[in-house]
Write a structure and sequence with these properties.
The chain has about 260 residues and is α/β, with parallel strands linked by helices. Helix 9 links the parallel strand 7 and strand 8. Helix 4 runs parallel beside helix 6 and helix 9 packs across helix 10.
C-alpha cells in the first residue's frame, strides 16, 4: 500500500514501533515535517529504508498554515530551513502548505498564511518539486494560483476537501492534480465519498494523515487503516460503474500514481 500523507514523528507519541509496523505492512509513505528535528528523523528513516531495501519513505517539509499565528522569528527560520533543504536536494516535496480558515483563530492569521504560501510555492517552482496542499475551509484561496500550480510536476490535495466539480475544475485548468483520500470516506463524509467514487483513478491517492484521522473508537490513525480505505473507495466506484472498481485494481493504480508523483 501507499500513504501520500502522514506524520511518523508525531505517530511516535502513540505507537513507538510505528516504523516496524510500516515495514510489516509494506507501506511506502510521504512524511510531513514542519521543523528540523522532525525532518531529520524522517530523513533517517528514509536512509535506513534504502539501506535495508524496505518500502521507501519520502520526505517533505513546510510551515503548516495553522502555525502562521506564531512569532515572525519562528516563521522566518522555517522558511530559511525550507530553502536550505531545497538547495541541498533533500526534499521530495514541499508540504503540507496552504490555508486553514477553520475558525476565528486561524482566520486572524490569513494575511500571514498568504505570505507563507507564496514563499512555499516559489520554492517548489524554482526546484521543480511537487506540492502537498492543506486547505481547510479555504478552497477558494487556491484557484487564483492556478497558473503557478500548473507549472509544478504535481499538486497533491491532502485529505481532499472540495467537491467533485472543484476537482474537475482543477484538472481542466491543466494542473497535474492528485486527490488524496483517507478515513473521511469511512466516516460517511458525503463530499469525499462522492469525489472518491467518480474522479479518474489515475488521479487518486490514499492517505492516513497518521496519527490525526482516527477511526471511530480509535485513538489514532495508522497504516493498517489503508486497506479499509481502499476497500471502501472500491465499493463506491463499483456502485457508480467507475473504472478500477476492485480493491486490487485500485491499489495497483494508486501505487502507480504515488510513485509517479514522488519518485524522482
Amino acid at each position: 500500500m501507499t500513504d501520500a500523507h502522514c506524520h511518523p514523528w508525531d505517530l511516535l507519541d502513540f505507537e513507538k514501533c510505528a516504523e516496524e509496523e510500516r515495514r510489516e505492512t509494506g507501506t511506502a509513505v510521504v512524511a510531513s515535517a514542519w521543523n528540523r528535528e522532525q525532518f531529520e528523523y524522517h530523513e533517517g528513516l528514509a536512509k535506513k529504508a534504502r539501506e535495508d531495501g524496505a518500502p521507501p519513505l519520502f520526505c517533505c517539509f513546510a510551515i503548516h498554515p495553522q502555525l502562521s499565528g506564531e512569532n515572525n522569528f519562528f516563521l522566518s527560520r522555517g522558511i530559511e530551513l525550507l530553502y536550505s533543504l531545497a538547495v541541498e536536494s533533500r526534499l521530495d516535496a514541499v508540504g503540507e502548505t496552504g490555508f486553514d480558515l477553520y475558525d476565528e483563530k486561524y482566520k486572524a492569521s490569513e494575511s500571514i498564511q498568504n505570505e507563507m504560501f507564496v514563499s512555499h510555492l516559489e520554492t517548489a517552482l524554482h526546484w521543480d518539486l511537487p506540492v502537498i496542499l492543506h486547505l481547510r475551509k479555504a478552497m477558494h484561496k487556491i484557484f487564483p494560483f492556478a497558473q503557478q500550480l500548473k507549472q509544478l510536476p504535481a499538486v497533491v490535495f491532502h485529505s481532499w476537501p472540495g467537491t467533485r466539480d472543484e476537482a474537475e475544475a482543477m484538472l481542466k485548468k491543466g494542473i497535474n492534480a492528485y486527490f488524496s483520500f483517507g478515513t473521511a470516506v469511512l466516516k460517511n463524509h458525503k463530499e469525499a465519498m462522492a469525489s472518491a467514487g467518480i474522479l479518474p483513478a489515475s488521479k487518486l491517492l490514499f492517505e492516513t494523515d497518521a496519527p490525526y484521522q482516527p477511526l471511530k473508537g480509535k485513538e489514532f490513525s495508522t497504516w493498517r487503516d489503508l486497506s479499509q480505505i481502499c476497500s471502501c473507495i472500491a465499493g463506491l466506484r463499483k456502485g457508480v460503474g467507475s473504472p478500477c472498481a476492485s480493491p486490487e485494481e485500485l491499489e495497483a493504480q494508486t501505487t502507480e500514481n504515488f510513485f509517479q508523483v514522488f519518485e524522482r
